[in-house]
Design brief:
CATH architecture: 3-Layer(aba) Sandwich
Number of domains: 1
Strand content: 5-15%
Structural class: alpha/beta
Largest sheet: 8 strands, mixed
Bound molecules: NADP nicotinamide-adenine-dinucleotide phosphate
CATH superfamily: NAD(P)-binding Rossmann-like Domain
Distance between the termini: 25 Å
CATH topology: Rossmann fold
Length: 322
């Protein structure tokens, strides 16, 4: 993989997005909100895929008051419910003919143990299995849209933390649950999924590529403590320190995903993150994930388990003769 840094790359460097349709999950808050603004400013039609229509519409109105001539649609999507994901796709299909970028951005972090509507451990369910199913159900639209289309999935430097493994023997943390380990596992799953998806897309010679991104440490509700996180006093102090001295703005944190979604020197299977100290902040650049994330056998196994759990099977076209 070719490594390169784009110094001072910002959303203004994004190519024109007029005529393109972009789906952003978790578009009402943090990085998703900033990505939505950036795509909309560049002329894309952005579908804000959010679990709360109320919060999403408030965010949409805020963007419309800040940016002129934006084109936004709000659709309900709860990634903790396979039924909601299917309903979202049905609604998307009834309104839109093309899909240029799917930004799998929504996420939860280090939440106390709970399960999704379908009985999946919640962090794995929302962060990985929800996006796995969503991507599988939208794949036809991505592949059939003319020109290069991209699936970008937000991972995290946290994928390198903890054991750095997928716990196939206890995927849903029923025998032993650690909020931290479950988050790390879900973010590793995001990478394994992206790289395997890209290999399968390449094998079918599709014009769709899959790219991973991470935002370093960015000031959003995820890290400010306003979310479902349940932490000790010591953890709160550490978090405050990190937030104050090592964290970048949500605008900057959205750049790796925007770069992954639009920059010319990004290819399938690449991983984009901030280029500064410990990848916590800085300009978007090509980065490297942990060894497990590149392991083909682990990726294939996770893929099979994810298909089985979600009931979503990806249909890849047979490659056309060259
Ligand atoms: N901020 C960081 O430093 C950081 C670092 C590494 C990775 N990330 C990743 O970046 C992504 C975005 O996080 P953020 O920092 O922007 O956090 P955020 O401000 O908390 O935003 C998270 C978004 O995900 C949505 N969401 C949560 N559960 C959902 C569900 N069941 N269905 C649909 N949407 C759901 C939230 O909706 P509600 O508003 O309804 O809750 C919100 O819109 C996540 O994948 C996170 O893991 C962030």
């Amino acid at each position: 993989m070719e490594a390169s840094t784009e110094s001072n790359w910002t959303a203004t460097n994004m190519p024109d997005q007029s005529g393109r349709t972009v789906v952003v999950t978790g578009a009402n808050s943090g990085l998703g909100l900033e990505a939505t603004k950036a795509f909309a400013r560049k002329g894309a039609h952005v579908v804000m895929a959010c679990r709360s229509l109320d919060r999403a519409n408030r965010a949409r109105r805020r963007i419309e008051s800040m940016v002129t001539d934006v084109s936004l649609t709000v659709l309900e999507l709860d990634l903790a419910s396979q039924a909601s994901i299917r309903q979202f796709v049905t609604e998307f299909e009834s309104e839109f003919a093309r899909l240029d970028v799917l930004l799998n951005n929504a996420g939860i972090m280090m939440t106390p143990y709970s399960t999704t509507e379908d009985g999946f451990e919640r962090q794995l369910g929302v962060n990985h299995l929800g996006h796995f199913a969503l991507t599988g159900l939208l794949l036809d639209h991505l592949v059939e849209t003319d020109g290069e289309t991209r699936v970008v999935t937000q991972s995290s430097i946290a994928h390198k933390s903890g054991s750095g493994e997928i716990h196939f023997d206890d995927l849903h943390g029923k025998q032993s649950y650690s909020r931290f380990e479950a988050y790390a596992q879900s973010k590793l799953a995001n990478l394994l999924f992206t790289y395997e998806l890209d290999r399968r897309l390449r094998a079918s010679r599709a014009d769709t590529i899959a790219v991973a991104a991470h935002p370093g440490s960015s000031a959003t509700e995820l890290v400010s403590g306003d979310t479902e996180m349940d932490t000790s006093v010591i953890q709160q102090i550490v978090r405050k320190f990190v937030n104050t001295f090592m964290t970048q703005s949500a605008v900057a944190g959205a750049l790796p995903a925007l770069y992954a979604a639009t920059a010319a020197n990004v290819d399938g299977g690449h991983y984009i993150g901030p280029g500064g100290l410990l990848e916590m902040r800085g300009n978007p650049t090509h980065v490297v994930s942990n060894a497990t994330s590149y392991d083909h056998a682990t990726a294939r196994r996770l893929w099979e388990v994810s298909e089985e759990l979600t009931g979503v099977t990806f249909e890849f076209e047979e490659p056309q003769p060259a």
